[in-house]
Each structure stands twice: as C-alpha cells, then as structure tokens.
Amino acid sequence: PIFLIVHTAIEVEGLHGDSKVRGVNLGGWLVVEGWIKPSLFDGIPNEDMLDGTGVQFKSVALQKYVSSENGGDMNVTVDRDVPSSWETFRVRCQTNRFVFCLVLLWGFNMIIIEPELAWILLVCTVIADAKRLKLAILTSQYLLVNPIQLPSAFYLFVMYYIDTVDHLSSSLTSAILFLQLWRVSDSEFQFRTSRGQFMACEGDGGFVSATSKSPSTMGTFFIDRNHENRVHLRVRNGTYLQASMSNQLTADYPGIPGWDDNAATFEMTIVANNLHGDYQLANGYGHDKAKEVLNRHRNNFITEEDYKFLHRHGINTVRIPVGWWIAFDPNPPAPFIGGTLEALDNAFSWAQAYSIECIIDLHAAPGSQNGMEHSASRDGTTGWPTSPDYISQTLDVIEFLASRYAKHPAILGFELLNEPSAPEVPLDVLVLFYKQGYQMIRKYSSAAYVIICQRIGNVDPFELYQADIGSFNIVVDLHYYNLFDATFVNMSVEANIQYIFKGRETQLKALNNANGPLVFIGEWVNEWDVTSASQTDYQDFGRAQLDVYNAASFGWAYWTLKNDRMHWDFEWNIRNSYLQLGYSPNMQLRKSVLLLGLACVYFLLHP
Predict the structure, then answer these.
(1) Glycoside hydrolase family domain spans which residues (predicted)?
(2) 356-391 confidence digits (pLDDT tens)
C-alpha cells in the first residue's frame, strides 16, 4: 500500500502549504550595504573620503595635531603632540560614562578591602545616570581614608577599558579633533566634530572655530591632496589654512603653498572609513552617475531567476529591506536616487508568480535609527529618536507602503523598523512608535502581520512582550549572529554549536511560551568567528541553527540571498552544500505527490 501524508496545520496565516516562514533576506538590493557588494563604490573619486569618514590633521611644520578643547565648541588650535586612540571611535556618549567605568573599577577593587561598601557601590552605579557623579564623589572620599592598591587598580582599569572603550566619552581625553567628513563634491568637504559642531572660518583671514551647529559656506573647504597624503585646506575665497606660530589654525596663509614642510601643509590620517551606504554612494558619485550605477545594480542583483531558485528550495518568504526615500519615488530628496519603488513592485510580481510571500522591512528611517550604513546614516550619528519630525515622517512612509501593498496577494507583513539601537533609541520612544505603526497598518489591513524588531545592544527581548503594542498578528523579530560580540571570539566549533542549543534554544522556548507576539528570527547566517572550519563544521553549525530556529513560532529568514562573502550568500551555501535545509512541509507534499504519480504510472504500465 502507498500512503500520502499531507501536512494541513497552518500556524502562520497566508503561507502556501507551510506552517511557518522559511525565508531569505534580499539584503544589499534596495538598501545599499557596501560590504555586501563592494564593487558598487569602485568608481567614486576619492573613495576613501566618503561622508562619515573620520580624519585627523597634523601640521608638518609644528609637528602637532589640530585640536579643540572638549572636541569642539571653541577655536581650533594646533597644539597636541600625540593623537589619542580614543578619538578613533565614532560613538558619541555621555561624559559620566567614564566616571561610571572608574566607579565600577574602584568597586571591584574594594571587594578585597571593604566588601560591603563595594557591593553597595556596584548596585548604585546601575540605578541612574544622575547618581553616578555623586557616587564618584562618595568613592573619592572613601579612597582618601582607604587607599586602593594602585597596581591592581591600574590592571583592572586596563582590562575594563579594553572591553568598554567604545562607550567612553572623548571629552575627557585628548582634545585632538576627530573630524567627520560631509562631502560636498569630489574635493570639497565640511568637517563635523564628534560633538556635532562644524569647523568654519570667522571672516577673511580669521581664526578657525568649531562652534557652528550647521554647515555654512565659510565652513566648506577644498582639500588638495598629494600622493603622500599631505593636504592643503583651502576656503572658497582661495585662502589657505595654516598653523600659526602661536598654535592657532587661521585662514591667512600668503600665496599658494608647496608640499614642503610649510605652515599650510598638513598630514591627513584617515582613522575611520566604515560607512558605505546609500548616502555615501549617491553623494560620492553625484546624481547622474549614481543613478546609472544603482539602476544597473537594481536590475541585475535580484531577478526573477532568483525567485525560481528560492521556490525550488522550499523558501516561502522574502524579507525585503527598503529605505524611507521609497515613499518619494521617483524623485526622492537629495542625494537619494529613485527607482526602488519600481523594483519593489517587480519583487511582488515575481513573488506572486512563485507562491512566495513578502515582508516589507523598513531598514532605513529618516535620521537613522542606529547610525549604521544600512540605515543610510550620513556620518554615523543616530538622529531618528530625538526628532519628532523624523518619527512622524517614518509613520508617513509606513502609511504609504501599507496603502500600496496591504491588499496585494503576496503580502505577508510589514516590519516597522529594522534594528533600532539601544540605548540611543529609548524604549518608551520606540514603543510609542510601534503602537502608532501598528494602528497605521490596521487602517489598511486587518490580517497583515505587524513585525517589531528588538533593539540591538544589551537588551532583553522580553521588553517588547510587556509593551502591549497590538492585539492581533504581531511578531517580534530577533537577529541571531554568533558574531559581533567578544563572546564568540576564539570560540570553538563545538562551543558555537552548544551556544545555539543552550542559549538560543532556551530563549526561544521562553519566548514561545510567553503568551505574547509570535517569534521571528529575521536574520541569521551560517558564518562565525571560527577560522579554518571545514565544510562538515559549517554543515553541523547550519544544521544546529535550523534545528533550533525552526521552533520559532513565526519562522526564520536567512541573511542574505546574495553576498560577496561566500558564507553570507544563501545561494552559494545551498549550491555548495554548506547549508542543508531539509524539506519544508510544502516540499514534502510535492515530493509525496510526485511519488504517488510515479507509483500510478508504474501500476498502469505493469498491471
């Protein structure tokens, strides 16, 4: 006898024959991420000087660095002997975090000397920012009576500094200016300090200051550069900046400087060049060339053939990142380039043809929700949560997308915002936005899933389960990577796999049982920090992730379909058997029907 087993359980409404999402992200397509396809940037003049690039300048005549006390807000000087490594970090933080670090160190050290007071200090430091300064004073007074052991304190400080240096405020360290470039043209730039002020000249031949909150004509500089990375800085009236003998930066160099060790020649050091997103690409090429590059990319990076491939391998959903400028297509605000809306329409048409569902993921919000290239940040800052206008504009974008796609047969859900960062995006701001976004989607669809993404950073995903954002078809998106954290550095193959089972599986079980939103592993990858791993190692790691993530109540989506880095590339993983998916219920059904058909043919031919 021949038995046909049919799986009829439907847990996620709208999927064709499957109970959960088995998805792939179309990352790097409609929202640019340079690391996914670096060749997109190859034709940009001065490619290493894109928006958000961090630079420092050193006078070759004085052999001192351009600086400003507290990282800005006063005149610019040329008086520092050495750069501080602290200035090579992009994070903008509160001054009292440095105090917080010191208090923690003192607390740890005093466990040996005065355990009871040490524990009080440690508990207090995590209560509130406003109390940390008082705590530092208390600690200082205590130390006057109970001096700590300086060698051990220094050791603890170094260890803690290594682990938390990206959280320290530059305002308490060397005042050497870490300047972020705002690109005006191939050779014209504006300089923004880590505190948000822009460099500018105070009239013809005047001093250069870093006090303005917005860029200006007097704050736009030409950079003339030679092959040795020596530069001249010239204002628009033709005057060159120089380091004066009184250690001031002034716009009054006489004549045109050469490349010798004169007062107008500086060494430029690029200390950070991490942003390669839509803003950097479009502003780097200029509108016409960027349009040519992006049109070619959008027409060829993802095609109908990719949907055929996904369908053959049992993928039932695509998560499609889009940027806020899609709502203004075909003529979005500068420097963004139109055309993403037409590409998204194509994505939906292909999806419908191959029984694949679509999740529209708002990956980049106005002002940037995380300061990263994939949110189209200009210079690494996170402006979205502090601007009511940005948040309101984001809701308008969500309404635009819902009004256009909520009734489309291929829509599965809308993700309101990708990877808002903690602590830059406060939870109360995010929850209010999510509630408003949920209501916006419900104006156009009672059935589409509303997906809310967990904040990235040191946060508990349960924070969104307690927020009461919506009552129907709501999903929490978690992103699971065995990367981007010191925990995984030097972790063995077996330890990585055990982390999936002991850490991730435990968390998923708790979330699945929380009687709240469905759980979606919206991003994961078959890559890790293990060096020299074999194909079998990768297969075991991928199998472990699939075993665990298949239990997520909504499902999962791999990051990403195509990528220049092989193990991030879903197609490469499948074609080369590094990732073995197994069969979805829908694929099992098709296989069962095929076997039944072959059996019928056999019995007809052999009565």
Answers:
(1) 299-564
(2) 999 999 999 999 999 999 999 999 999 999 999 999
